[in-house]
Specification:
The chain starts with 27 loop residues before the first strand and ends in a 9-residue tail after the last helix. It is built from eight helices and two strands; from the N terminus they run βααααααβαα. It has a two-stranded parallel sheet with strand order 1-2. α1 packs across α2. The longest helix has 32 residues. The protein is an all-alpha fold.
């Protein structure tokens, strides 16, 4: 199944630089993969992120930006720039408030944007297993959405849709918890890009 492939994003799928070229994604590896984050010092951040994902997303973005909110953009401009254009005036005037709203209203995007920001800033390559976990989560969300639509159209699918929806929610919480814990471990061990050279 190609949707569960461990391959990295292709050039056409990655964020473009100002010249329109796909930004390179080769270099160092994450300090820990999402599969092993609980065993590699990320158990407490993982559980905390599963219980309080929005607050953790807000905290990690601030930590990733090293407290410099002048670098802040809604979803760090990774997610649908047309949708986040409405945040431009707030990003500059009240970035902390905008980050709070982003983290609590669009938590999944805030989590992904922080991870992508750290990954791009530090030239970190995603582990193939991480790609599979993220893609499996995405497939579960699509399946749950499809089942809920099917339940609206056909009688008798309500229970199946609810069960699959709950399973998809559990997969999402575990995936987002591991993703945030992985980012937290990276930022704790190497607070800045310059920390890698020490």
């Amino acid at each position: 199944m190609c949707c569960l492939s461990g391959k990295p994003l292709g050039k056409d799928e990655r964020k473009k630089d100002p010249m329109g070229n796909a930004r390179p994604m080769d270099g160092r590896e994450w300090q820990t993969g999402m599969c092993y984050v609980c065993c590699n010092g990320g158990c407490i951040p993982c559980v905390t992120a599963m219980v309080c994902p929005c607050a953790c997303a807000c905290y990690l973005r601030n930590k990733a930006l090293q407290g410099d909110m002048s670098k802040y953009q809604c979803c760090q401009a990774y997610i649908c720039r047309n949708c986040t254009n409405c945040c431009n005036c707030c990003e500059n005037n009240v970035p902390c408030c905008t980050l709070f709203c982003e983290s609590f209203l669009c938590c999944c995007f805030a989590i992904s944007a922080t991870r992508m920001w750290v990954q791009e800033e530090r030239q970190i390559v995603t582990d193939p297993c991480d790609n599979r976990i993220i893609r499996f989560n995405n497939c579960c969300q699509i399946l749950a959405c499809f089942c809920h639509i099917l339940a609206c159209l056909c009688e008798g699918f309500d229970l199946i849709a609810q069960v699959i929806g709950i399973l998809a929610d559990i997969v999402y919480l575990v995936t987002s918890g591991c993703m945030q814990a992985q980012t937290c471990v990276e930022l704790s061990r190497y607070p800045t890009v310059e920390s890698y050279n020490k």
